[in-house]
Amino acid sequence: MDARLTFTTGPDAPKSFKYLMAAGQALRESPLPAVTQELVALRVSQINGCAGCIDMHTKEATAAGESAVRLHLVAAWREATVFTEAERAALEFAEEGTRVADAGQGVSDEVWARAAAHHDEEQLTALVLLVSFMNMVNRLNVLTRQPAGDYVPGQFH
């Protein structure tokens, strides 16, 4: 499969893509735990059907030492016993933040409260930005049919 656009080539793509990747790097450096970031990025990407981001975030998480069991269970996190309460709150937040059209209200007060019980204001800000960022990147990749499978951990760092 060939991508409809390649973000790293063309007269305008490199400049805009560079800014996009800088935003992603800033999020990686946020106080939200790296493991939580990868789990959230993976879950948002699963919901949106973004193969490129699923490829990237499973490989990044694996390279960081995440277990295969936890990665396989992200799609069914509600029934899985391998996630902390803080991770579960972040995954729930990510789902409601991604399915805004389905929920009709965005993130509910109850889900926000559960996330706030486990994350301070700076981490919550990072969580909001991460969910928003991942939804944007997923859409860019899905709209342009970016292929998956060749990502190398650290490729965009």
Describe the protein's topology.
Layout (H helix, E strand, L loop, with lengths): L12 H16 L5 H15 L2 H13 L4 H6 L11 H14 L1 H4 L5 H10 L2 H23 L14
Helix pairs in contact: 2-3, 2-5, 2-8, 5-7, 5-8
Short description:
By secondary structure, this protein is mainly alpha-helical.
Features:
AhpD-like; about 160 residues; about 65% helix; 8 helices
Q: How would you explain this protein's 3D organization?
A:
It is a single chain. The chain has 157 residues and is mainly alpha-helical. The chain has a single domain, classed as AhpD-like. 64% of the residues lie in helices and 0% in strands. Helix 2 packs parallel to helix 5 and helix 2 packs parallel to helix 8. The chain starts with 12 loop residues before the first helix and ends in a 14-residue tail after the last helix. The mean pLDDT is 92.
The tally of structural domains comes to: 1
Q: Please summarize the sheet with the most strands.
A: none
- What is the CA-CA span between the terminal residues? 25 Å
Total strands: the figure is: 0
Average of pLDDT: 92
